[in-house]
Design a protein that fits this description.
Radius of gyration: 23 Å
Order of helices and strands: EHHEEHHH
Distance between the termini: 77 Å
Shape: elongated
CATH class: Mainly Alpha
Strand order of the largest sheet: 1-3-2
Number of helices: 5
Bound molecules: FE2/S2 (inorganic) cluster
Strand content: 5-15%
Number of domains: 1
Length: about 150
């Protein structure tokens, strides 16, 4: 038998149902990731969709996304209604691009690290870890700093 979730939840209920400490719920609220209203007794009340937000925050943090990135993504969700499946899909698609780019950069860094740990020269000219984007090469071939403009 499944128990239905009440329309609004106290901070303790959010913590219990999401498996996150009450202090973390307060922290997410202070950071603008979730919001509550105050009832007549001045107690916080959260709408049910906060459970999905908290779950997504936890997963997003595990992928390496910062709280600021998560907040920016949540800011694209509708304000006056619970996000629809399409809203969450769009948010996920945007994060996929960010994560794909990070995976590409980390893969490249890992491969460079393999080489550099064996080498150890840390040359500004040749080492991709010291000069990761080869910024001078983007300006053209040759000794760019020695050539007059
Ligand atoms: S340490 Fe030699 S190429 Fe990076």
């Amino acid at each position: 038998m499944s128990r239905s979730i009440p329309r609004e939840l106290s901070v303790g209920e959010v913590a219990a149902r999401s498996g996150v400490a009450v202090s973390a719920i307060h922290f997410y609220e202070a950071k603008g990731l979730i919001a509550s209203r105050r009832n007549a007794g001045n107690q916080r009340r959260f709408t049910r969709d906060v459970l999905r937000r908290v779950a997504i925050i936890k997963v997003a943090q595990r992928t390496g996304l910062s709280l600021q990135e998560i907040r920016q993504a949540f800011a694209t969700l509708p304000e006056h209604r619970a996000p629809s499946a399409a809203d969450w899909q769009r948010l996920s698609a945007n994060w996929r691009e960010t994560l794909d780019e990070r995976i590409r950069c980390l893969t490249q860094l890992r491969d460079q690290l393999d080489h550099c740990i064996g080498c150890g020269c840390l040359s500004m000219d040749d080492c991709p870890l010291r000069n990761p984007r080869d910024t001078l090469a983007e300006q053209g071939a040759g000794a760019r700093l020695l050539e007059p403009n």
